[in-house]
Structure formats: structure tokens, C-alpha cells
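A quick word before the example. In earlier lectures we treated sequence and structure as two separate objects. From today on, think of them as two lines of the same record. Here is Sulfotransferase written that way.
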Amino acid sequence: MSLEKPLGSARRQAHEKSQTVREEVVSAEKRAILSDHRADDFDSVLLIASASRGGSSLLFDTLRHHEGTCSPDGEHGKWYTFNGVCFPEFDSDRVPADFDDFDREALLTDLLADVGATTAEGDRTHRIDDALVRLPLQFPERDLPYGEMREAMLDGASLDEVLEDHGVSPKHFDEFAEEDTDERLNDEAIEERPFITSHDHKRGLREEDFGRTLVLKTSVDAYRLPWIREQLFPDTDVDVVHLTRNPAASINGLYDGWRLNRGFQTYDVGDLDLEDYDGELWNYDLPPGWSGDGRLIDACLRQWTQAQGHILDGRDAFDDVHRVRFEDLITDTESTVEEIVDFAGLGESELLRENAADLNQVMTTKEPERARWRNREELVRGALDRADEPFDDVVERLGYTEESEWI
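And the structure line, produced from the sequence above:
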């Protein structure tokens, strides 16, 4: 995949700086793993497929606390972008099942770059290395002293302190961001904001860790499940958790995220003329048939419909798919998580049990509230009333025809 294609300048800079970090800055142990392994070396992969604002970040954060798993920090979609498997090479986030014009070895190696193994004790060195590996994707146009930053963090400085010392606002990161910010974020990033930091229970990979399950989730995978099965992981045991959420709550969450100025921007698609949106960049996934005109709430409805419709149509590419309702994850967390663990064959995990008893807040746009969509019920209902047959079909296939269950 040529780096001379659109967005090539930022991608070239990210490649050069990422190469420097991997070859000269991170620990010798991490360099050895990236030299000898790829993401498809894991015995199994657990893939979470969901529409944006469907609760997948919360589920991913929960499952990555299982001591039988390895996982990246945040979504792996950044590595698709890094390797050009994204818009504008395609006209949307959909990738055809037979697309093979990409460097598979490079992509699978990159997918491993920020993966760590879950352990109760964790490892600060991994968290530092992980932050450094991802900085070139987050700020490709900036010349940062990666080695100096690593030494400062090894000496005890926190990530936000080091970032501020080098002119980078921590508000780009979910851990340090507020609900909104006066700081206008530009479009240089390859990784989607807000950026996620490594949790305290991760350490660097070891040879024996490839017998674990690799947990992956990114919203764009909704549009490329057959491609993942046939081209990316053709010989790997991949189980899929299909996470659903009722349309009203999902569409409302998308609407909130579009109107915040703290992240979720994904693509520069040209001029946008969406009612109720004054930003310049597209937010969240880019569905086939997207439009930059009209009502923002209608664009959000199309995002939910297209993502869930593509999952329903693409899930047959996999032998093992387990559907989970976000509503059940919230109201009956213990048994819902236990069902997923059983489905994936992960076994017992004390760390997971502790985390599931007090779920973290991850990538939220507002304070969690049951049926929060009813705060703008007239706007949401207007979109639902205007929806066409594809929306009704997806609602029926997902079993969300009973509004009383829309929490």
C-alpha cells in the first residue's frame, strides 16, 4: 500500500517516527517481541463487533481485565489507518471480503505494537512503552523527544506531566479530558481521539502469552467482518461477540459525541452541511452511502442502521458468534459477563470479577443515565419516524421492537 495516497504526508511522518520508537526507544524485550511475532500468532481472537456508541468500549475494558487475555489499549482501527485500509482509499469504512491489496505482514505486526498481557500486578515499563509507540500516530506532525520522554516517565513523571512539558495538551486523552474543552483539536491524528491510556494491570508480552486470547474491538470492524475472516485472520480461531444497543440510546449517544469538541473525529470528507453540527470533520464510522448534508440526527440514525445491518449480514463468515445486549450488560452485569467468558472459553479470573462488580466509565460523552435519550425525545423520535425500511428491518432482526426495553 503506497504512502503516496491521500493523507500520505501525515502517514509517512508517523511511519518514520514509529519506526524510530520501535527500533531505538522502547525496551529490548518489546523490540524482540515485535521482531519475532504478529497478531495472528495468538491461539485465538475474541472480536467485539458493535455500532458506535453501542457500549463496546465498556465491554472491551471489562474483558481486557481477564488474566487469560491480551489486548491493545483502545481500538485497533488506528493500525488500519496507519496502513491505508481506510477512507479515502475506500469510499466508506466498508472493506470488500476479497480485498488483498495490503501488506498483511506489516498490518499484523502493527496490530501487535500496543498489545499487552493482563496481570493483576501490571508493569509500568509496558505502559510507558505503549504510550511511546502510539505517540507518532497521535501527533505525527510533531517532533517529540521520545527517548527523553521515556526517561522522564521511568524516573516517575506521569504521562500528562510529560505531555505538558513538551507542549502537548493532556485533554486529547480520555483519562485527562473533560466533557468538552475550549481547545479546538486539529485533524493531524491517525489514532482517533480521545486517546485511551494503558490500564494498571498490563505488562509487556512474553513468548508464552501467545497461548492466550487476543481481545480486539473497533467500530469500523462492523463493516469488514468477511474481510477479517478471509484476509486478515484466515487461519486463526476467531470468536465474535455481537454487542447490540437499542436505536434510540445509540443514536442519542452518537448525536452527543458529534457535538462535543473532545474527540471522536475520524475523517476529513470535505465540506459538511449537517444541521446542528458546526465542526469540519466527520465523526465516528463512515457508512456506505454517507451524506454530508441534512440533519445530524438522521446521519446518526444511518450510522447505527448501517453498522448493525452490516454485522447481521457479515456474521455468517464466522462459526462462533454470541449476541449480547448492552442493556443486559448494564442491568445484569455478572451473568452477562459470565456468559461471554464461557462462550470464549476464558475460564475464571479474579481480576475480571472485581472489575465487573464496579464497571469503569470509558469513552462516555455524558454522565451515565438510564434512558437518557428521552431528554431529547422529540428530536430522536423525529429521526425514527423518518427512517426507512432498512432501519425497520434491523430493529426487527435485533429484537428491539418493544420500546419499553429501550433503556
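Notice the following. The radius of gyration is 20 Å. We will return to this example when we discuss secondary structure assignment.
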